[in-house]
Write a structure and sequence with these properties.
- The chain is mostly beta strands.
- It has one domain.
- It is built from one helix and nine strands, in the order E-E-E-E-E-E-E-E-E-H.
- The strands form two sheets. A five-stranded mixed β-sheet has the order 5-9-8-7-6, with no helix packed on it. It has a four-stranded antiparallel β-sheet with strand order 1-2-3-4, with no helix packed on it.
- A hairpin with a 2-residue loop joins strand 6 and strand 7.
- The chain is globular and about 45 Å long.
């Protein structure tokens, strides 16, 4: 699979019934997540919170998934955005995969700090 003007990353796996991956634009910032022939453009993603959607810096380090619930399928791309004290910062793109061929893949973007609170850390010490 090739797309002119893009570098594609497609994670490996024997169970990839539906090709999923990340396309990095060689010119500009028009990156997209793809599922089969559908594309969800990063710059068009709806931000949920104060952070604006941004390109995935290292697609090879991101986690990719296609999930199903109640007959609908979703794509998810999650990355860790830091090290040290920022190691608990995660960002994710999620979108419902449209059932019709011509429909667009609409993405949503969220950044969260997943570091456990001190109370949670103390409560988990004995487990």
């Amino acid at each position: 699979m090739t797309v002119p003007g893009y570098q594609l990353f497609i994670p490996g796996g024997a169970n990839n019934k539906l090709p999923v991956g990340y396309a990095t634009s060689k010119r500009g910032s028009n990156d997209f997540i793809f599922v089969g022939a559908r594309r969800g453009y990063i710059r068009r993603a709806a931000g949920l919170g104060k952070h604006r959607p941004s390109r995935v810096e290292q697609p090879i380090l991101a986690a990719y998934a296609v999930l199903s619930q109640h007959g609908r399928r979703y794509v998810c791309l999650m990355e860790s955005n830091g090290s040290g004290s920022a190691a608990f910062v995660r960002s994710a793109y999620v979108g419902r995969i449209p059932s019709s061929q011509g429909a667009k893949l609409k993405l949503y973007y969220k950044v969260a700090d997943v570091k456990p609170s001190p109370a949670e850390s103390i409560g988990n010490m004995g487990k």
